[in-house]
Prior knowledge:
The structure is a homodimer.
Chain A (H helix, E strand, L loop, with lengths): L3 E4 L2 E4 L3 H8 L2 E2 L2 H11 L4 H4 L3 E5 L1 H9 L4 E7 L7 H17 L3 E5 L1 H7 L5 H17 L7 E5 H17 L3 H8 L7 H5 L1 H5 L8 E7 L7 H6 L9 E5 L27 H11 L8 H7 L7 H10 L3 H13 L4 H36 L1 H8 L3
Parallel strand pairs in A: 5-6, 5-8, 6-7, 8-9
Antiparallel strand pairs in A: 1-2, 3-4, 4-9
Amino acid sequence: MADFSVTPWEASGVIDYDKLIAQFGTKKISPLLKERISRAAGELHPMLARDYFFSHRDMDLIVDSHEKKEGFFLYTGRGPSGQMHIGHLVPLAFTKWLQDKFKCNLYIQITDDEKFLVKQGMQWEDTQKYSHENILDIIAVGFDPKRTFIFKDSEYVRNIYPLMLAIAKKTTLSTAKAVFGFTDSTNIGLSFYPSYQIVPTFFEKKRCLIPSAIDQDPYWRIQRDIAQSLGYFKTAAMHSKFLPPLSGMEGKMSSSVAQGAIWLTDDAKEVKSKINKYAFSGGKSSIEEHRKLGGNPEIDVSYQWMKIFFEPDNKKLQALHDEYKSGKLLSGEMKAALTERINSFLQAHREKREEARETIKEFTHEGALATQMWEKHF
Amino acid sequence: MADFSVTPWEASGVIDYDKLIAQFGTKKISPLLKERISRAAGELHPMLARDYFFSHRDMDLIVDSHEKKEGFFLYTGRGPSGQMHIGHLVPLAFTKWLQDKFKCNLYIQITDDEKFLVKQGMQWEDTQKYSHENILDIIAVGFDPKRTFIFKDSEYVRNIYPLMLAIAKKTTLSTAKAVFGFTDSTNIGLSFYPSYQIVPTFFEKKRCLIPSAIDQDPYWRIQRDIAQSLGYFKTAAMHSKFLPPLSGMEGKMSSSVAQGAIWLTDDAKEVKSKINKYAFSGGKSSIEEHRKLGGNPEIDVSYQWMKIFFEPDNKKLQALHDEYKSGKLLSGEMKAALTERINSFLQAHREKREEARETIKEFTHEGALATQMWEKHF
């Protein structure tokens, strides 16, 4: 079997997700839990039905809270270190579904401080520019402006500083080193930063649910260790697998490998060329052979992207799968279908992103939740 | 010779201040420098004339800046961990003299965050209460409300967070460990804190002067290492000796030894009783012997307090010295003289402290400098 490695900073190799569950000590999202979520939400999101979101912590307690009408809230974030790619949008799309179905508040932390601290060449002005750009992309996903608060760490720090200190006081350098891989060469800002990341899980005296890729799970270990001693709930989480890079079913789509990613700014021609050039194919080396033996959808990146994000319709997905496997659908046709889906998605995204320039203030300062949050001091 | 030890956290033994200068790598305040300060200020403060302020870094450059009309500013702070004692007021009185003579801005940092992080049992509410109480005591020293900005770290953090991050990014955990004695058991808030302490030295693009006791010198080493790379001046400093505790000429007056300190809240009876009971005397064991052999003013705490703070008149101080040494002045009389001075000082202080309730807003939010500072974002 191929080796693999997953840390909050890197994913490589062909990932065995069952092993990850054991390694991280999380729980598999069971058929029973899916059924409970489906009943509560009125439907099951394809990412849950298809096990793209596959692991969790305390999601059963979140459903309990919902059933008891105690409510819960959502929390996610974005490090503004550059432009965003499709891999960034996938968990956000799932988060939007959760907000739509459960009508809950959502807090989106823009970690300008952490990105400035962690990236050597990064200037403060860059983090501010990317923050603005990224917020537009996030709003374009379609969150509810009345129930969503998007905040930059550097702006909101005054409201949360005492709470951040209370968290920091409970966390030693050795714990931070163990969880985040810090060393004595780490700068003193970065070693403090984990306390800010925990703050939003305490924004309400309800359970917090964090939807994210599984590699982010370690970040919440400290939260779950100290939450109760500060009078809050341990945060819950739902973990997704990774969106595979174009290059194949190893690792994850990452900003550091340009050919592996589709950027939200890529135009139709670029998308087509990238998919054709780089998208790893599960097809055979000649059309004849493919027609005869069929392709392998399990390793075909184009099919996998369809399954994860671009083909929500189960019947159509099944058809793609079966026709590809039988050899009826060629790799080039699969790529063309994906290209069309990505391009119409990106076109719609960019339109919504332009509209976001008008609504940004609602999310950051003037919407119902944002107004409430700026009046709060923790 | 007795051993001694001085760190930012503790002072013990009979301190050899010349050795401290060598150990810390600072400079002695020379007669020439005193003359330059005297010419610039129009007079020499007794604490300088009597070598209570005895060491410095770059004070010659501060006088240069003054002579070239480039100006400079002052910075000091207070950790609000409890009530204040007389030892806390001594450097503030000197700082007030500097502000009066040089008409310069003064920034006073109230480190509520650091005290919360460093003291295990300390609740956030305590730090807020003591901050308010301590600010009243500080204002009572008589600073110029138009040129003074007193700020709580937790309140002003939003204005300075990006600058704090820039400082933090330049400081590794190993540097912080070396300078501040942190270990892996230190909490992640405290290890970040030094970056906040450096921020006010960058409040103006002028030289900064920090008057403090010599034990605080290590705190500014990181500042002097990184200031120029961020486009600012290395901070200058003037260092005082310690106000000896009542118990004798060892260590320094400290909040942790109650009998060693006179609190600003002590009433006349308490002061009298403390001085009589605890003030270490340089006199002889009987009146007869004292009359015959005389006392030793060098180890007499009451005389030393007169010299450091309570008798600014050189002639009167000389008379106290000579009469005590000759045996004409008894220890009880020296104590009575000091008691009278302390009590009239404290009475005046408490009156000014009551008045400070009316003016506190000028220092923290509404005065000319405070208004300017709240509009600034670093």
